Amino acid sequence: MSTQPEVPLNESPLLAETHARGSRHRVRPVASWREHHGWSAAASLRRLTSRPVGTLLTVAVMAIALALPLTFYLLLGNLQKMGEALGQNQTISAFLQVGQSGTAADLMAKKLRDHAEVASVTVKTPQQGMDELARMQGFSGALHTLDDNPLPYVLEVLPRPDASADRVDRLVAELRDMHGVDQVQDSGTWRQRLEALLGVGQRVVMVLAGLLAVAVLLVVGNTVRVDIASRSEEIGVLMLVGASRAFIRRPYLYAGIWYGVFAGLLAVGFAVVVELALAEPVERLGHAYAGKLHIDVLPLWLLAAVPVAAAVLGWLGARLVSAWQLRKAA
């Protein structure tokens, strides 16, 4: 962007400043301020559309930078749901001592159902366990040789979905200490590893979002810097006739806002495309796991907030660079 298109006379900031000075006594200050804001927004938009290739490249780079944290947020949310469906809250199996009666098993189950961290308790009888073994290949013949059923009662304890790994660990320790419990099988290590991985993923998304926000600021700032440098003579004339810095930089601030709005909308489009691309394979995976898996889409409030946040970043980048450039030119 070494050259800039000529600015029509009716869009020249110099003419606008002269017109504003001439009509200062006829127009109220608030109306004049509002009029110039409207002119700045429209003029900056026309200037961006007058160079579509450069504007599109800048907006595309910003959109990719904004879409990356959205994509990672989407993947992290679906990974968390996948962990919940495939084992984050897996059932804890408490094997009672051989010889415990069904009445004792029912009493223990009733006591556990009142526990704050327990969602449900299922009692599996020795006969049910024997039937499961009989359905497994290679065990049916061996079971016929047994004189009696050696399997104990089993309590299948399902922790609450919102129970953390530490609270589930305490629940497992309480089960092991209960009278009549022989052995407890738990996937606590799996839960702890999954929660640790999700915590790392959330921190990575936050750091990535911060770095890419800085990248958006730099892209907008560099674009505005080049634009100001190409119009240094015009800005010098405006300063000579008494134009304020706020008046001069206002169109550039609106240009940064337009860059941010367009980039935010395009980033939302990229995120929706990623959602659509993941929908079919996740649906096939869900069928493989008996419908337990479902894709988690990005919330509407987040999609609506992206263009707003991008506009703020664009304004901030333009504000910082334009203030610095105008101080140099003063």
TrEMBL record:
Domain ABC3 transporter permease C-terminal: 207-318
Family to which this protein belongs: Belongs to the ABC-4 integral membrane protein family. FtsX subfamily.
Pfam family, one: FtsX_ECD
GO cellular component terms, A-Z: cell division site; plasma membrane
Transmembrane segments: 53-76, 204-224, 252-278, 298-318
Subunit and interaction comment: Forms a membrane-associated complex with FtsE.
Coiled coil stretches, renumbered: none
Role this protein plays: Part of the ABC transporter FtsEX involved in cellular division.
InterPro entries: ABC3_permease_C, FtsX, FtsX_ECD, FtsX_proteobact-type
Intracellular or extracellular location(s): Cell inner membrane
Top-rank lineage group of the source organism: Bacteria
Membrane topology: Multi-pass membrane protein
Domain FtsX extracellular intervals: 92-184
Protein name: Cell division protein FtsX
Keywords: Cell cycle, Cell division, Cell inner membrane, Cell membrane, Membrane, Transmembrane, Transmembrane helix
Origin species: Dyella soli
A single BP term in Gene Ontology: cell division
